[in-house]
Amino acid sequence: MTPLDSPLLALTGGYWDGKFHALTGATITVRDPASYEAIATLPRMGAEHATLAVAAAVRALAAGPPDLERRKRALIAVADAHDANCDELARIITAENGKPLAEAIGEVRYAAGFYRDAVRHVDGLAPRTLAEEPRGCTWRVHARPAGVAALITPFNFPLAMLAKKLSAAIAAGCPVVVKPAEKTPLSAIALFGLLHRLELPPGTLNLVYGDAPAIGRVLCEHPAVRVISFTGSTAVGQWLAAACAPHMKRLSLELGGNAPFVVFADADLDHAAEQLVANKFRCSGQTCVCTNRVLVEASVAEAFVARVAKRVAALTLGAGAAVGTDVGPLIDRAAFDKVSRHVSDAVERGARVVVGGVTASGGDGVGAFFPPTVLSGVTAEALASQEETFGPLIAVGTFSGEAEGIARADDTAYGLAAYVFSADLARLERVAQALHFGHVGLNTATGPTPEAPFGGMRMSGVGREGGEQGVHEYVEWQTTPIGLP
User: Fold this and answer.
1) Has this prediction a pTM greater than 0.85?
2) Fold of 259-450
């Protein structure tokens, strides 16, 4: 089924009722983004297979949730499986996603962290008795599994995004149906091969991929699916919300972003430049939390751009598996074309190309490589300011004064991540309070961590992943008053 030749891909196909299912019929082709060579041919599953997977999850739910200790053991086992197979899982991520191997290794370790952190929150789901006895009753509070959970993941972090969702679902006791992105299903298949060895109860974990609209309709309309967790575009998130509304399903949606990176004149410019470059080019800029709009106080803009340009010019563009690669290819030609369009539009509106800008490859058979690019003088009207670029482009604009900086940063319908740099701690607090973003880095451009809740505001979604709050997305709270004798 796959020329990738990985021992973790010895079994492929759909997974439900505790086993892999070899399927015939329509297929999908997984390609290496660096070369566009086919690395796997897999069955293209649809509504019928999604229905079978949900039915398996329903049977697991009817058997009752695992006790809290068993959930903790399962979470630790999944984390250990990531660690024990880190290099091979990373190789699969790089093969289907294109990111540098060092990044892929970091992703596997990051993913393992979500399972380990979830263990800390399992005991908090134990039934508890209120100290008070209102209305003459003893009151018990129970954390019940919300039901079957559908976990829909994107291409950019094929293991980490799954870990955010799956760790919380396991902690809460919810059986799951996982649907990975069609472009990057191999990482999930490999993980299920490892989970299969853990001998979890049949139907606890299920996997389908292929015809996204058909599978999505089943997950939205099946009455047993009570939670849908999705990471991806705002447009698809809106479609899911509308499709689920008649069924009153619980939604956890991490959607698009338009992250500002605000640099005030009193900031440490070298530190800010280092943070920006580290933040921006992860997965070739194809992350919802990476910087999209760089806003620099006008008096230091030239000095800051020079620092950024020096660092970006030193980055090496190449295949993710190649030694020394800093920035890999984009996922496909459509992604490449969008970055090209944003660069051209900004230049037509007066921006200046400082680094890059000349495309290294159009993607016809040789990979969609776009060079790391820095533009200065980008206006608020440019596409790079208005839309999420999702590529290796640093678009720098300017502002004058704190009020304008806040206004420019918050001038978007999205609210996933933002970053602010200043030597004035009081200013940092003021700006963070004024910004409508779920994640605001202050003098740091770090992204989410397993220990803290993460999610968006406004058009960037609802719900949280990570920390105790992430586990609670999969829990229904039930109270049982007991009449006193």
Assistant:
1) yes
2) Aldehyde Dehydrogenase; Chain A, domain 2 (3.40.309)
